[in-house]
Here is the input.
Amino acid sequence: MHKHNNLKKWLCGAAIVGGSCLYLSQHSEFFTKTQEKDDSAQTITVPDRPEDAKKLIGYSMTDAFKYGVINSISDYVEQAPYKVDTTNFAGDFQNQVIEFGYYAEINGRKTVVLTHINPDTLSIPEASPFVKKMICKFAEFHNSQNERATILAHEFAHQATDPDKKIGSDIQLSQKTDRSIFEYNMTAEEFELICNHDEMRGRINGLLYKREQYKKYGKSSVFNGDYSFYGRALRSGKIDPFSTDPQEIANEQLFCVKSIREQYEREHIEHYEKYTIDRLSAEHVAFDPRKPDEYHKALDQVYTFIWDGQLVNMNFYSNGQLPELRLTDNEYDVAKAKDISDSSKCMPKNPKNIMSAALLLSKKDQSR
Ligand SMILES: [Zn+2]
Here is the structure.
């Protein structure tokens, strides 16, 4: 979801390619698949269908890149399908919540939706010409090609971490993402963190879209609104997106993730609180202490981006370069309550397991 979201719809969502740094290994001819019904767990091989690569457009930007169907975020934004929704706007900046875009299930399919803002000056004939002009300017700005593409880059980022399995079932490619980040074995607290990290992912992808535009057309004015910090850093020489020095590239990547995170924590996290809590209650599966915690795997997926013709992993959280995000008090309370109730429900009879469940509880008590 992008900005002013009332978060009634979710699926701002997510997926995994598994593991950390994701590199291209597009030439494997077969992938092995365990046949579930067969007790002997015999593995069968299913051949890749290279002609399916085009179907990755509309499924996952990351996968489409891996298979060489697109070579940039801009490329995907130009080609991938989405729907348009229209919202009337009559100048109620105070009370009207506008979702500029979202990723949600519509008629059984996860779909990226972009909002077209209709300046509704007809319903307020008494308004002053100044107000009417403001409304039109607002709509004009948000309907501009640059804003639309940035919102699409945000929403398509969600699609890649939470792709539609129904669409995916028709794609026979071994490196295809087949799990949503929301399906990983995580505690409730980690699930809420992932929801928030995925929102930051959307924002970072919007920034990286603008970065591509800047590198192509040279106009730093493309970094407007929430992204103006990048334009300032550019003009002051703090970052140089044309640099080929590995250290400078690493610094710029850290700068992007860190700046978006600071802004998100300062200005946006509360807008996503309801979404995060609703999604937790709808989708979170109780953490299974017998299985490995997959939170960091999910983070790797969240922070995988297309950057100058490569897939890069910008997860600076798992390696401690950035401290963990701080949830809102409500998010934290809800998650903690769910974790406690989940772990008491699955309290096993085996004494050894009781020990680990108890350890789990005490670990969580100290986590904040
Ligand atoms: Zn979003």
